[in-house]
């Protein structure tokens, strides 16, 4: 075949020949097997597209594949320049490349008007796969070359395989091949160098970086091959490579020079200006582009960025530039129009603020060095909770770090922001100073700014881990009053505000001993906290609600809440180092109630760590109370006494609970007088817990009559009795009834205790009474049979019942009582028995009560089973 007529002279022939051979791979090329393998698989289909910005390594990747002998057929290569996409030039180059690949190209194919069809015939006649590589293809949609190439690819199937490298998608029907599964795409993400691939690239320049700097360099360049190569060149012989990497960005002079030459110099002035002004924001759409550069910029924005390989399309019409490209553009903008940079950032900040995009708005206000405006945006939009860690926003906090001190001393909002950032970072001293200054400045604000500023100040105070009770009450009351003045819907997007206020109100109610009100407040706070992603706020609400439910003896609910709290991090990153002592105390109380004493000790130790960092009188008192109760269960009353006596401070209700624990300790130590003195000292009329503790003291003194009287009065109280206290009282009543040879009452009381304990998973009262319950359970299988699950949890063993125990009858049954038993065994009702025996219904009921007492049962069915076992019926 001859060189085409349009390229017939010797010099042009040499140029053509250089364009239709696979380029030589530079010696410094890093062969990346994963991309070669992807291209190998792609060559099995009709079309492979390799796209990316200048310097992404497109050509290098395809050359690596082409020279790796991994192709299913010969490769026809064409290297294109922008001027080569005219039909009269393009088709002769394609024909020449196919000829060099061994295709018998006909003379008719030299007519560029007929070339697509003729070349399709020539390729099909070859009868084997051939790969056509078009490197650096740039053609417009619906151009003559585009239409012809589409026709060639369709007509020469399945033998022609096309591989295209370009800066943007080629003007080919990609969607058609994608749907048919015949398209392989190698995009900028595939071309990006991974860390393991960047290592040999740097090593070619004698550069070796530690893992952290290497990771930072790859992240900063986003794996852009040219960026990595330029960095490697600059790093050769550098005395401080780690320091260089930390500073390396798009404003590096070598990067700027490369991008100016490859991208900007080829652009007309209006497009160049568009790229410069739209580099100011981190992401941009056509509306923002119009805001920054004017209406014309907005109109042409989409077309320009779609033609820019350094622009990545995001969702909903947003684009972002490659970070190094954006940095280079910003540097050029600072040199060419230094006065525009601040104004462009402020325009961007205002636009983002109008759109409700707070983080972007704040970032641009800070870049414009307008810290006051950035702070007003945060405070005015009730976003201080995002700084405090209630709804963590690390990016927003980072954007506001480094605020100059002089700014915080001149306006209220910057001072509030500085205080919130300090609180989130665990610097409570700096927070207090900034808050004090800001509070003074709030008085000078106009009303429209004063209300959100005072609300922000109140929220910062509420996150103080260690205010006294009076300060907390004042802060909560102030914030509650401020919230009433805000429009109801203004807090719809800020559930963390209501969660914080309600949780703070709950802490006040808990401190006053109003557990029902505290539970309501914490429950409402949790509802709002769950609408946020604030782990500390959710754990705070869950922990306090769980602990409050423990105090209300609602251990089923407390167990579920404590388990949910345990699923969240123990130490929350925001606010810094904050632990939730209440969560550990709730877990300890639940573990104690379930008699998991090692776990209870473990949670108490973790609670003490939290309280050492942030002391709290109520939580410290609760820690002492639970610790003392664990000591008592483990049979360590003296240690329990030391724990109680070593606790100072705390509300009156908690001191009272601690004194009752002290009374129990004295009882276990065999000091009933001291136990009675302690219980009577803090006892209140009608208080069931005081009554139970005092009854135990009287039992310890051997005065069963007084103990029984106290228990009977406690159980007769009309008010609600906490479930665990009621179980304790029923157990004491059962114990005393069995002691007074009234087994029927004892059995009834024990059955009630078992039923309530089984329902509410209350194990601790039974463990306290293990000594006398264990033998009783062995002797009465009918009683414990419905509660085997509870006994398994208690690790009680009902065992095999001895015959002597089964045969026990507490009193001889009369003849009439035996008659009633016989009728009972026939499933007769009370009325039927009365009619059969010619007695009144009340007489039958009296006989039944006597039968139950003598057989130590509480139900008809149990009486019949017992009677049959004893051969009475």
Explain this structure to me?
The structure is a single chain. The protein is elongated and about 130 Å long. The N terminus is likely disordered. Helices cover 64% and strands 4% of the residues. Helix 28 runs parallel beside helix 30, helix 39 runs antiparallel to helix 40 and helix 47 packs across helix 49. Among the domains are: 187 residues, Rossmann fold, CATH 3.40.50.300; 90 residues, Arc Repressor Mutant, subunit A (Orthogonal Bundle), CATH 1.10.10; 124 residues, Serine Threonine Protein Phosphatase 5, Tetratricopeptide repeat (Alpha Horseshoe), CATH 1.25.40; 55 residues, Arc Repressor Mutant, subunit A. The longest helix is centred in the last third of the chain and has 18 residues. The strands form two sheets. It has a five-stranded parallel sheet, with helices on both faces. Strands 6-7 form a two-stranded antiparallel sheet. This is Transcriptional regulator. Keywords: DNA-binding, Transcription, Transcription regulation.
Q: Give me the CATH fold name of the domain at 5-191.
A: Rossmann fold
Sheet with the most strands, sense and barrel status:
5 strands, parallel
Strand order, main sheet: write it out: 2-3-4-1-5
Shape: elongated
Helix count equals 50
* Main CATH class of the domain at 5-191: Alpha Beta
Gyration radius, in Å: 42 Å
Assembly state here?
Answer: single chain
Structural class per helix/strand content? mainly alpha
